[in-house]
Model the fold of this input.
Amino acid sequence: MPAGSLLLLLSATLPAMPQDATSRATPDPLTAVDGTACSDAATWTAARRPELLELFEQHVYGRTPAPPAFRCEISDQRSALGGDARRTRLKVTFHGNGAELETELLVFQPAEHLDAPLFLGLNFRGNHTVVDDPDLPVRATPAGTPEGLGRRAPESDRGERARRYPIATILDRGFGFATAWYGDLDPDFDDGFRNGLHPLLGAGPTETGPRAADAPGSIAIWAIGLSSYRKALRVLGVESVAVFGHSRLGKTALWAGALDPGFALTISNDSGCGGAALSKRKQGETVEAITRRFPHWFCPRFAEYAGREEALPLDQHLLIALMAPRAVHVASASEDAWADPEGEFLAARDASPVWGLFGLRGIEQETSPAVGEVTGEQVRYHLRAGKHDLTGEDWRRFLHHADRVFYASR
Ligand code: GCU
Done:
């Protein structure tokens, strides 16, 4: 009996599983909604890519407002990390609809290599938490809550999250690093979209009734902010950018990478539901759980799929596919069941055929790599041992991947 028939026979006798190595996530990334098979890169790019973007705008993150206008100003530039780095505080002021929003992008560049490719990502608790530097103002609130808004974070928060960002190593490896506080772009609580960038983009509350089913949520706004920051970095001579994010900011990095082809590499760390994990598996966090606790992250329509994920006309492998032919890296942690590591692997695997159309290799193995292992090329996946976190081991994998993307010859 040919191996294929054995496989068929086996899968026919097995009980229905949420998603196993022999079944593929649906819908098929290579078949357009009207049934057209996309068997070459040009057809996929012209027909499939735009409709996938549209599906995610309508059903998950909300439609994308026109990019906001902004101006940049260097508020402080000095030598850092013992002279190996140039550290810049870039004031990025967004304006629109008669309002302004001031934000700050903190940038480290190798002093001898100012046009080095750079990792850009948002942080959870303020720029002063990313590095222990007494010269950085403590200006963010302790948490994105209504109570915290406008309250100054304690001095003790300085460098409190530095462990997650090995900036010296990143620079030593020939890359820059830039970060901004996500709460500057949109505070992370449901305030009816009155704060952050929403009103400047015409995406705030309406006078006439409930928000449209496809009105953009916070992930959309954070993603647009990342895209603006990528452009702002040109002021400092940076052209090549990898976007990264952990957890909810990993979801954000994926949507930013999907929307903005200017990101050469997109990195999702432990992004889970609404990020790299397949929704239809309903493992770990479900659409019901996430839209109940964090309704403001998504467009209102996403909540309609709570408990009925099978009705979604998409799944998250198609979000990863939107990065093609650019590079993408999905990272999971073995004990992070809430983010469904297996679902993250399967999404990366099932997006991979799209890279084949471009003559590139994604993930070719059927089953998840063992804990501590990595797999794939232009689409890559690693499974770290341990909990939901962003660690040195994750960065070691990201740097290795970035070497291939930005320094292919080294
Ligand atoms: C919660 C949420 C996740 C999210 C995470 C985070 O656990 O349920 O979806 O990724 O917070 O951002 O830390």
